[in-house]
């Protein structure tokens, strides 16, 4: 997506994590009462490999979306 920045994934025991910074003008298209579905964040132009889930909001900076996915997801589900 033009104007967005995706971090390099970091890992923890069960999950890997990343954040995506979107242009502030796109924040108005995100739901305010829940996390974004995969369809919603992909519709904003965010492109990531399969398995990523929007898992948390950072209220002070709503243009930074926090994502996680199961560690070794691509090894466990290679066909996706």
Q: Can you tell me the CATH superfamily?
A: Cyclin-dependent kinase, regulatory subunit
Averaged pLDDT, please? 88
CATH class value: Alpha Beta
Q: How would a crystallographer describe the biggest sheet?
A: 5 strands, antiparallel
Net shape: globular
- Taken as a percent bin, the fraction of beta residues is 25-35%
Total discrete domains: 1
Q: How many distinct helices?
A: 2
Helicity level, as a percent range?
A: 10-25%
Structural class: alpha+beta
> What fold name stands as the CATH topology?
Cyclin-Dependent Kinase Subunit Type 2
SSE arrangement, N to C: EEEHEEH
Q: Please mark out the parts with pLDDT under 50 across 5 or more consecutive residues, or reply none.
A: none
* Secondary-structure arrangement, i.e. CATH architecture: 2-Layer Sandwich
Total DSSP E strands: 5
Radius of gyration: 13 Å
End-to-end separation:
21 Å
Pfam family, one: CKS
GO biological process, one term: cell division
Family: Belongs to the CKS family.
Organism: Sporidiobolus salmonicolor
Key traits:
alpha+beta, 5 strands, 2 helices, Cyclin-Dependent Kinase Subunit Type 2, 5-stranded antiparallel sheet, 80 residues, 12% helix, 29% strand
If you had to describe this structure to a student in words, what would you say it looks like?
By secondary structure, the protein is of the alpha+beta class. The chain has one domain (5-73): 2-Layer Sandwich (Cyclin-Dependent Kinase Subunit Type 2). It has 2 helices and 5 strands, in the order βββαββα. The protein has helices at residues 38-43, 73-76; strands at residues 5-6, 10-11, 15-21, 53-57, 64-70. Strands 1, 2, 3, 4 and 5 form a 5-stranded antiparallel β-sheet that branches. Strand 2 and strand 3 form a beta hairpin. The relative contact order is 0.26.
């Amino acid at each position: 997506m033009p104007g967005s920045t995706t971090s390099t994934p970091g890992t923890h025991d069960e999950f890997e994590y990343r954040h995506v910074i979107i242009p502030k003008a796109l924040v108005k298209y995100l739901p305010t009462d829940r996390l974004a579905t995969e369809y919603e964040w992909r519709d904003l132009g965010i492109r990531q490999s399969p398995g990523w889930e929007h898992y948390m909001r950072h209220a002070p900076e709503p243009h930074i979306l926090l994502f996680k996915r199961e560690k070794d997801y691509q090894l466990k589900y290679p066909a996706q």
